[in-house]
Amino acid sequence: xxxxxxxxxxxxEAAIAVLRERLLQLTDGxxxxxxxxxxxxxxxxxxxxxxxxxxxxxxxxTLGVSTHLTRPQMEELADLWQQSELLVHGIALVxxxxxxxxxxxxxxxxxTDLEIQTFCSDLTGQAQGRTP
Length: 132
Description:
Blueprint: H1 12-26, H2 33-40, H3 52-63, H4 71-89, H5 113-124
């Protein structure tokens, strides 16, 4: 399968552009899309896509290891870290972060064409297979 088209017809680059636009509309400048996605159960589900063990494994290099902070407190720290990285690198979504900035996931590269297509269909309400 071509890297430029998803199985049901969404072109990856176009679908990401639509996702980026929709996700930016959901952020408020005070929370990363990972926090918004986690709280709303949308897109990739943000911080909530991982169980506790995997969340800690993915974030410990950035946040360290804590024996007294709760998962919601650790998520808050991760959200604050992401917000600062967005400012430092002049980007609007952590999904667009350069590879050397990413910690927990690989941004858009984390997702298959089918996942991108599904996220785009979910957020736009457009039937799968229609090119945006």
